[in-house]
Amino acid sequence: DAGVIQSPRHEVTEMGQEVTLRCKPISGHNSLFWYRQTMMRGLELLIYFNNNVPIDDSGMPEDRFSAKMPNASFSTLKIQPSEPRDSAVYFCASSWLGGRGKETQYFGPGTRLLVL
Amino acid sequence: DAKTTQPPSMDCAEGRAANLPCNHSTISGNEYVYWYRQIHSQGPQYIIHGLKNNETNEMASLIITEDRKSSTLILPHATLRDTAVYYCIVRVSNTDKLIFGTGTRLQVFP
What we know:
The complex is a heterodimer of chains A (116) and B (110). Chain A is mostly beta strands and 116 residues long. Chain A has strands at residues 5-7, 10-13, 19-24, 31-38, 42-50, 53-56, 65-71, 74-79, 88-95, 106-107, 111-115. In chain A, the strands form two sheets. In chain A, strands 2, 4, 5, 6, 9, 10 and 11 form a seven-stranded mixed β-sheet that branches. In chain A, a hairpin with a 2-residue loop joins strand 7 and strand 8. With 110 residues, chain B is an all-beta fold. Helices cover 0% and strands 44% of the residues of chain B. In chain B, a hairpin with a 6-residue loop joins strand 3 and strand 4 (45-50). The A-B interface holds A 4, 31, 33, 35, 42-45, 48, 50, 55-56, 91, 93, 95, 97, 101-110 and B 30, 32, 34, 38, 41-46, 49, 51, 87, 91, 95-102.
């Protein structure tokens, strides 16, 4: 398996523009997570899905952020409009939630976002 | 949610064992301890996890105290490639959430 795939790997945009980050989880996994990492705040969980359904979005910073998972093999994280403080590395991770409490999350390489 | 406490940084000589401590005094009986690491500019990488018993895999060993209030990650023969930030995480009960703290920055030197 190729692992978790994220695109783009780097994104530079101007304030006010819409940004869409994409993630393809590992085939067969049923949970997907979006994280954001900055120097100031470390690694934060934004939202996670189980069986394509959002389970916990309490980490989503504000209404400018939205995430979707239309099917088991694809998810997007959208920022509209983007602001300079959104600059960060955004990671996607996936896992198999089998109810046994031993699930392991596998992370993608991340998308490095810079908003000017 | 159980919180974890780790030293901010540690050094280790190449070839020696690296012992990374973690305190999780408020852990509940059904919460697992996970260890991940993050090498510069990469996504976090799973290392090992455990509940009560000590665990070992090809990467590391995990020693959990009998009262489960602390644990130690052991890299038996550290290499320069093990230089990374190591996160000790207590997985939130009945959820799939991992709450990352600030971790321990391990520097392996020649």
